[in-house]
Amino acid sequence: MRGVQISTVVRGNELGDKTFYPFWRKAEQLNVPVFIHPAGNSDPRLKKFGLAFTVGQPYEEALAMSTLIYEGIMDKFPKLKLLIAHGGGYLPYYAGRQDNAYHSGRDGGTLKRSFNSYIRKFYYETVVFNPDMLDFLATKVSAKNIVLGTDYPFGEENPISFIRKKNIIRRPARCNSWKKCCSPFKNKYLIWDE
Asked: What is the per-residue pLDDT across 142-177, written as a single tens digit (0 to 9) for each?
């Protein structure tokens, strides 16, 4: 599978920064998925109790998605295939706040449509540790945009059993079990089918 993994922030620059336009242009041109996974969170408030992992990473994912949307990356490069770790962090679950700010003009952005419509353009991996969250995620985005993830060695012990609990990931018509499936990633990623 061709693709690339990047962090949620690069040398202190947010992913929506104009500096990265050439990168996004090339990723779109090559039609390769870009997997966005945080490299941690160095906020000193998150040093105790593993909060950099449990609170910091979902925050990083939400911030990365927000900058990609507000800075116009999703509009400038509409064919990008962006896969976000950990079910998109906090953002899919709190997108209503962004929509409220958009509709009331408090977001300061120049979006072409509601904020919520942009989150449907991302792909999300399943490492959320709570199967009910996958159900909710599937109400915000298409189940076709939810991809099996492992986050090895930190993720679910048995990711297949985890997604079977909710059975929201369905097979495309021409796929059987573990197989390269017809998908937005051009037959290059794995999904589960009973």
From this structure: 888 988 888 777 877 887 777 777 655 554 433 333
CA distances from 111 to 86, 122, 124, 158 (A): 25, 16, 22, 40
Pick the closest to residue 180 from 170, 190, 192 (CA basis).
190
Q: What is the mean pLDDT of residues 69-77?
A: 95
42's CB contacts (< 8 A; 6+ apart) are 52
Q: How many CA atoms lie within 13 A of 77 on its CB side?
A: 25
CA 139, 142, 145, 147 torsion-angle sign? positive
Q: Tens digit of pLDDT for each residue in 7-26?
A: 999 999 999 999 999 999 99
| Domain boundaries, given as residue ranges, for the chain | 4-169
pTM, two decimals, is 0.84
Domain 4-169, CATH homologous superfamily name and number: Metal-dependent hydrolases (3.20.20.140)
Q: For residue 193, give the amino acid letter.
A: D
Using pLDDT thresholds of 50, 70 and 90, give the confidence band for residue 68: very high
Residue given tokens 């599937």 in the structure block: 138
* Tokens encoding 15: 């992913």
127 Cβ contact list (under 8 Å, min separation 6)? 85, 86, 87, 149, 150, 151, 154, 155, 156, 159
